[in-house]
């Protein structure tokens, strides 16, 4: 019988890659295979780019408040930098006023997914594999994607959003709801007086100039990412993309920015942007079935919550993994 424990992890966002790294570094007897439906790692820590332009259209920054996250990130210090933007408040109706951040805010560099890429370095990752189903039994789980089967695995852990995790693992419904966010990406020819802005009295809630982030010296042309507010995004889920784009552009132009290249604007909908209600526990774990799940939706709404959920699951699951014979540690 193999003394190795094989684990499949679905999702390569912060939760998936940090859990994989923690498990592999803790026990050489564990083999982990990561699967993601996307073309790259990082999940919602994402940058869309062309030759000249880059847009951090998902997570804007992250904070490091807890000791476990701080400790975990130490070996990856070169992949993220503190962002100290000139930050302001904009409104179509009132004068702008500057804001101050009272704690460090970090961004991955050179792109938003760089940190996850670095954490996953050397791990076995399979991209463009949308997992549709998990079948079999504990110790013999098989993952089915659109084009292939993978396995058998001793354990399967999902970090996909709660509704997808429920479907894939066939587990009882998690009491999790999500807020959507529309992200509008617009090149801008003129320098703005701010790097980031909270927006009031508008369909928009947040603007950021991606090129203002540290480690983005390679970005030739400036661009703005505008996030619509949660309420506005939810109200317009059934509106056509063209109409949403036009309304968001109109709102952006009301903020008196100069040099916006409206004709090049692109839109992205984050249907599961941030959880609005999360599970009672920090992770899901069924030790009998050897199935588990974690992600921001088990803790809160941000990158550190995703890590913390993965970290707490790691502490719980490592006690379930047999130590290889002869290992006294
Ligand atoms: C617009 C927006 C703004 C945000 N702003 C901030 C911010 O400023 N600060 C902050 O800290 N957080 C922010 N967040 C939240 C932050 O991005 C998330 O909390 C965090 O990245 C979640 O990490 P995760 O690993 O739990 O999930 P994800 O990053 O979503 O990773 C899950 C992964 O699972 C994959 N997946 C899903 N289904 C399948 C399947 N069936 N098969 C294979 N793979 C699958 C997905 O492709 C994805 O890569 C923001 C999010 C959005 C969308």
Bound molecules: flavin-adenine dinucleotide
Strand content: 25-35%
List the uncertain runs.
Answer: none
Instruction: Return the average pLDDT rounded to an integer.
Output: 94
Question: How many domains?
Answer: 2
Under the CATH scheme, the architecture of the largest domain is Alpha-Beta Complex
Taken from the alpha-carbon principal axes, the silhouette is elongated
**H/E topology pattern:** EHEEEHEEEEHEEEEEHEEEEHHEEEH
Description:
The protein is α/β, with parallel strands linked by helices. The chain folds into two domains: 1-41 and 120-174 and 279-329, FAD/NAD(P)-binding domain (3-Layer(bba) Sandwich); 47-112 and 177-277, Polyamine Oxidase, Chain A, domain 2 (Alpha-Beta Complex), CATH 3.90.660.10. The protein is built from seven helices and 20 strands. A seven-stranded mixed sheet has the order 7-6-15-16-17-14-18. A six-stranded mixed sheet has the order 9-2-1-13-20-19, sandwiched between helices. Strand 19 (284-286) and strand 20 form a beta hairpin. The longest helix has 15 residues, at 303-317. Bound molecules: flavin-adenine dinucleotide. The site of flavin-adenine dinucleotide has 38 residues, from helix 1, helix 4, strand 14, strand 18 and helix 7.
Write the layout of secondary structure elements.
Elements: E1 5-10, H1 14-26, E2 30-35, E3 48-49, E4 54-55, H2 67-73, E5 80-82, E6 87-90, E7 97-98, E8 106-108, H3 114-119, E9 124-126, E10 131-135, E11 141-145, E12 149-153, E13 155-158, H4 162-169, E14 177-187, E15 196-199, E16 204-209, E17 223-228, H5 230-235, H6 241-253, E18 266-277, E19 284-286, E20 291-293, H7 303-317
Parallel strand pairs: 1-2, 1-13, 2-9, 6-15, 13-20
Antiparallel strand pairs: 3-4, 5-8, 6-7, 10-11, 11-12, 14-17, 14-18, 15-16, 16-17, 19-20
């Amino acid at each position: 019988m193999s003394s190795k424990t094989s684990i499949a992890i679905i999702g390569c966002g912060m939760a998936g890659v940090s859990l994989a790294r923690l498990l592999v570094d803790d026990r050489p007897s564990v083999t982990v295979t990561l699967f993601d439906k996307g073309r790259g790692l990082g999940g919602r820590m994402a940058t869309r780019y062309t030759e000249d332009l880059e847009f951090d259209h998902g997570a804007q920054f992250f904070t490091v408040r807890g000791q476990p996250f701080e400790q975990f990130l130490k070996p990856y210090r070169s992949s993220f930098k503190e962002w100290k933007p000139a930050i302001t408040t904009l409104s179509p109706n009132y004068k702008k006023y500057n804001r101050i951040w009272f704690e460090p805010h970090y961004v991955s560099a050179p792109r938003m997914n760089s940190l996850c890429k670095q954490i996953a370095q050397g791990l076995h990752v399979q991209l463009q594999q949308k997992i549709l189903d998990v079948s079999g039994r504990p110790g013999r789980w098989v993952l089915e994607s659109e084009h292939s089967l993978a396995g058998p695995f001793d354990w399967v852990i999902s970090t996909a959003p709660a509704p997808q995790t429920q479907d894939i693992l066939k587990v009882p419904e998690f009491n999790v709801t999500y807020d959507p966010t529309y992200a509008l990406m617009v090149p801008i020819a003129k320098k703005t007086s701010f790097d980031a802005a909270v927006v009031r009295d508008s369909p928009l809630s947040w603007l950021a100039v991606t090129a203002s982030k540290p480690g983005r010296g390679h970005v030739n042309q400036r661009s703005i990412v505008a996030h619509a507010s949660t309420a506005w995004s939810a109200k317009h889920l059934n509106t056509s993309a063209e109409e949403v784009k036009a309304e968001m552009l109109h709102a952006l132009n009301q903020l008196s920015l100069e040099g916006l290249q409206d004709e090049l604007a692109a839109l992205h909908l984050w249907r599961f942007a941030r959880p609005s209600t999360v599970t009672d526990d920090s992770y899901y774990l069924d030790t009998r079935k050897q199935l588990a799940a974690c992600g921001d939706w088990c803790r809160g709404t941000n990158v550190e919550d995703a890590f913390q959920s993965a970290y707490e699951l790691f502490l719980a699951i490592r006690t379930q993994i047999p130590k290889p014979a002869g290992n006294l540690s």
